[in-house]
Amino acid sequence: MSRVTCDKTGRKTVAVSALAFDSKCESILMVRKRPDKNPEGQCGGWGIPTGGVEATETAVRTLVRETESESGYPVQRVVGLLAEEPKGLLHTLLFYLIEVEDFPQAIKERDEIIEARFIPLSEVLRMPYADRKTPQGVYLSVVNRIQDALGTLASVEPEELEDGSEDAAFKPWLRENQELLRAVVGELTRKGLLVPASA
C-alpha cells in the first residue's frame, strides 16, 4: 500500500514511509511501482518504501515489514521518526529514517514493485514527476519529503537534541553521518537541485 486510505469503517488510518541512505549519504533506497497493477490505482513511478499500518501491528513493525517486502533490503535499524504528516482529518503518514543491510533479498511484493535499488540523490532530484505518461518518474510527494529531510538532518546539531527526547535517537546517526550528508547537500545546492533552507 503506498498511500494512506480510510478503512471501510471510516476510522483513522496511519501509513509509514522509510528513508534509507547508502553509506556515503549520496544515494537513497527507492522502489519502482508498477503502473499496470497498482492496487491503489496510482500511476507507476519511483517512490520510497511505504505501507499502511494494520490494526494488529505497531507503526515500526509495519515499517520494517513494508521496507523488507517492497525493497528486499533487511532493515538493520530504525533510527527515528523524521516527520508526522497529517493527511486530512482521518489519515496520518509517519516518515522514518532507517538503516538497511548492504545485501538485498528477493522482493516479495512483485505484484506492486518492479525493482528496488539505491539511486543517487542527484539523479532522483532530476527525475521528471511521475504521472500516467511518465511511469519512470518520481512521485512529487516523495521529492518533497526527501528535500525536507535533507534540510533538517543537515542543519540540526546533535548537541541540540535533548537526551531522553524522541529526537535523541538521531544523535548517534548524525554524529556518524552528518559531515557526509552536509557535503552532499552542499553539492546538490550548488547544482541547483536543492533550495537552501534559508531561502
Automatic annotation (TrEMBL):
It comes from the Bacteria. Pfam families: NUDIX. Signal peptide: none annotated. Coiled coil: none annotated. Residues 11-144 form the Nudix hydrolase domain. InterPro entries: NUDIX_hydrolase-like_dom_sf, NUDIX_hydrolase_dom. PANTHER family: ADP-RIBOSE PYROPHOSPHATASE, DIHYDRONEOPTERIN TRIPHOSPHATE DIPHOSPHATASE. This is Nudix hydrolase domain-containing protein.
